[in-house]
Structure formats: C-alpha cells, structure tokens
C-alpha cells in the first residue's frame, strides 16, 4: 500500500483491489522525513512481540449495559438501531480535543472509544448487538507508526477479540460499517449529532422525527439510576469533596495569583481520581459570583469577599458530581454575607425536604423559591405579599435560575426527556438531582442597597431519591455557615 504525501515507497506490500480503495496514510506537509525507504518499511513490519491480552474480565457495568440494551430492543422491535460514540474533534490544526464518547453510546456499551458504533440488528427474538470498533493498528502497511492516530503515536487500542471479552458484545471492524449501512433495508434509527459519516450512510433511510424518538427514549431511560450508576455518583461526590478541601487549603496562593489557581487545584483532583471535570469549573470570587456560569476564572481573589465554587469530578466511567459551596475567602462571613447565606441555606433545606418519591418534580423548586421570596419581601427589596411575588416571578431578578436538574452521565442529564416525564413528572426512587437555590445581587443593581451589590451565594448538593425520602450524596461538605467556618479553619490549620 502506498503512503500519503511526499516521496514515499510506492509498494510496501502487494495491493489487492480492496486495499487500493483504502484511504492512504496521512503525513504532515512539512515533516522532516520526505519518505520511507523500502528497507525501513520492511524493518518496521517485523520484530514485534505478540501483545494480545488474554484472560480479560468483563467491565464492571457489563451486566447493566446488557439490561439497558434489552430495554431498548423491547421499545423498538423490528428496527435497526445505530448509536455512534462520535469522532475526534479538531482543536487547532492537527491537535484534537480530548475525546468523550456520546452518553447514549457509553450508557449502552460501557465503551468509550472514538469512532465506535453500536448497532442493534433486528431478529425474530429481538435484536443482535454488534460493537463496531477500529481494530489494532496494521503493522503490515505502516499505519501503526505513520498515521497520526496510529498506536505508536496515541497508544495501544484493544483488539476486537479483547473488546468482545470486555464489553460482552460481538465486535467487528468499524471501517466496514458505512458500506453495510448503505445497503441496509428496513426501518432504521440513528442517534444524530455524533458521527457525520454514519449519518451520511443512512441519509435516505432515516427521518428526523423517528431519530428524535430514539434519543428521547435513551434520555428518559437514564432518569432512574441503577446500582452501578448510584455507586459512580457516590464516588464522584466523594472525590469532589476532596477537591473542595484542596481548594480551601490553597486560598492564600489563590489570593496571590487569581481564580485560575483554584481552577487548577480542583482539576488536579479530578484528573488524579477521575477522568476529568464534569463541566467547566466555576471559580467565582467577589462580584463574579453573580455571573451564573463564570468559567473565565481570571479574576482576583480577595480577602473579605466570597468565593462561589461550583465544580464536579467526572469518574472514569463518565458520571459527574455537581456541587456548589459559597465560602468566605478569609474564613469568616461578614454580617451581611451571613444573612444572605443563611437565607439560601434555609431555601435549600426546604427544597431538599421536598425531594421524595411520589412528589412532583417541581415541588423542590417551588419550596426553595418561596423561602427566597419571603426573605426578599422581609428585607424590603421587593414589595409583597409573597403570593404576588411568586405569581409574577418578581423574585427571579435575584434568584435567576431553576433550583435543580437531573444528574448523571451529563451534568444536566436526561435533557431530551419529554416535559411530562421530567419537569412535569413525578419523582421515583433512583432519580438523582441537584438542589441549588441562589441569590445574586449584581454589582450594578440600583434596586438594592449598595452593600448588597456584588454578593452572590449558591449552595448545591446532589440528592438521590430513596424509597422513604432522599439521601444527600454530597453531605461530606458542610453547609451551615458556622460549620463552613469551622471546616475552613481546620483545613487551614
């Protein structure tokens, strides 16, 4: 097979008709080696040890992914279902963003490999699942050392045989899939937005409406977490708590630099104990705390101000925590900071108490918003009565956002679920959601006294609905103002 670019060896191995149609191997335009000699090519083809891995055990969630695929099969009998992992995305020139598999693919397979595709072929009994993956790099044609995604450059990948053992699904070469899909007959659905090549192969076989039904089903399937998922969320919350402790210990260094020191400190914990952060960490000091998604993290950290830290560790299986604490940078709340903080804490307590099986999803939001509206009326910031404030939504000038969301593989999990099963739905055991009320007084808000301006407070915890109520998965971190102060003093020594 000939190599891409420059003066290279035309024929390293005899070409079959099939091989001649394969895309040649990329080389950098301005690489220092213009070609490959026949002697070097022959040398690189041999002398390599057999590295096939034997006696592999299935991944921990294999039994759960099998059950999830069975549920999917039962929902769409007689239809071919295609769920891609996605492809690498270019960050700049020839460098890519770190790859994260689509949540639908990870949820159904446990695999996280780029270019992977799960296909469920309809059978008389249900469906036959096949996991389409890139096989090991080909050492015969030089791909493993000449291609930018060859194993010598980016690391070893599992063989198809190894993948079958790990994920409990028969595996095939993904390079053969587009042609097979192009010839497929019968009804087909695909999860869109992840793999343009796969979608192109199915362009005349799918409809947007039918594909959306597949996406919605997979989103709603994640509303109730199984035991594996709950354990992952517990792990994520525990690691996140340690990350918050790390931050408190280095607040003096953040004061000497910027919010980025806080961001980097938390990220270290996320990478040591997990895969990544679950979302861009919000490390908002002073008036930046009033910006809901402050992820620039380039501002000063000053004694006497508050730090709103909203961050979560994502586990290696891609489940994320989502926790917020608002901390006095010098370790002590001022009188006004504590008043505002205590109001938010009281609202969160009311919200958490409303999380229980059989309750409406909206109940926790309504409970928290009522407390905050009462405080705003009490402080004279908005004219009552409270019922009027809530009816007109006047409290939203300072509360801004909803009081929570579902949590799981996405930080805002299950977002494609139907409104009637999510926001207008009923809580069930196994659901996991955040409860995160806040009060935000913008620095330029002339409707509040000057001393309020630039203060933002949010408290957020990850709450699991249980058979008899709820469990706070993030309760390792203190929430009451006096407990926060004592905790910070202990960590600072």
UniProtKB/TrEMBL annotation:
Membrane spanning residue stretches: none
The protein's required cofactors: Mn(2+)
PROSITE patterns: PROLINE_PEPTIDASE
One Gene Ontology molecular-function label: metalloaminopeptidase activity
All residue ranges annotated as the Aminopeptidase P N-terminal domain in the record: 59-199
GO cellular component: cytosol
Keyword tags: Aminopeptidase, Hydrolase, Manganese, Metal-binding, Protease
Biological process per Gene Ontology, one example term: proteolysis
Pfam family, one: AMP_N
Catalytic activity entry: Release of any N-terminal amino acid, including proline, that is linked to proline, even from a dipeptide or tripeptide
EC numbers on record: 3.4.11.9
Region span, Disordered: 1-34
Keyword Endoplasmic reticulum belongs to the record: no
InterPro entries linked to this entry: Aminopep_P_N, Creatin/AminoP/Spt16_N, Creatinase/aminopeptidase-like, Pept_M24, Peptidase_M24B_aminopep-P_CS, X-Pro_dipept-like
Entry similarity comment: Belongs to the peptidase M24B family.
Protein's UniProt name: Xaa-Pro aminopeptidase
Annotated organism of origin: Streptomyces triticagri
